[in-house]
Amino acid sequence: MDKGGDTTAQDSYQQQPSMNIEYSHVPKSETGEFSQDLCGCTSNCLTCCLAYCCACCVYGQNQVAIKPESSCVGQSAIYCIVSMLGCAPCLGAYGRQNIRDARHAPGDFIADCVAHWCCPCLALTQENSELKEAGLL
Asked: Is the whole-model pTM more than 0.85?
């Protein structure tokens, strides 16, 4: 066999992209916490009302703010479908964790899931306010 024209499987193997998501466009939280309390929606009443009436829209808007390559309509549709299946708190917690990761805010998935299960409109409003404070919305 001619070694000049053949490529081995190792040579043709391409490095897979890293699963670590870089949030270089998201400013870090100065305190490491969410800037607003979970029940602090009084400063953002319009978003709170929108989250109450159409949570999928606020979820989509929040996710596009930290992942600009994603689609607001797509993220909203996913939230809507998952809500119909009864799993919205898990998806909400996943989205909340993305914001925590981007802003380097501490927290855990279970607490985020409980927040989205008990009061999803407040959780989505808090996340939206956090992104507005970061200048992403």
From this structure: no
Q: Which residue's structure tokens are 């190792």?
A: 10
113, amino acid identity: C
For residue 17, with 0-12 CB atoms within 10 Å meaning exposed, 13-18 middle and 19 or more buried, which class applies? exposed
Give every CB contact of residue 47 below 8 A, 6+ residues apart in sequence: 41, 58, 124, 125, 128, 129
d(CA 61, CA 71): 9
pLDDT in tens for each of the 137 residues of the chain? 555 554 444 444 444 444 444 555 555 555 557 777 888 777 788 999 999 999 999 999 999 999 999 999 999 999 999 999 999 999 999 999 998 888 788 888 999 999 999 999 999 999 999 898 888 88
The closest of 32, 89, 90, 99 to 61, measured between CA atoms, is: 99
Q: Report residue 25 as tokens.
A: 């466009």
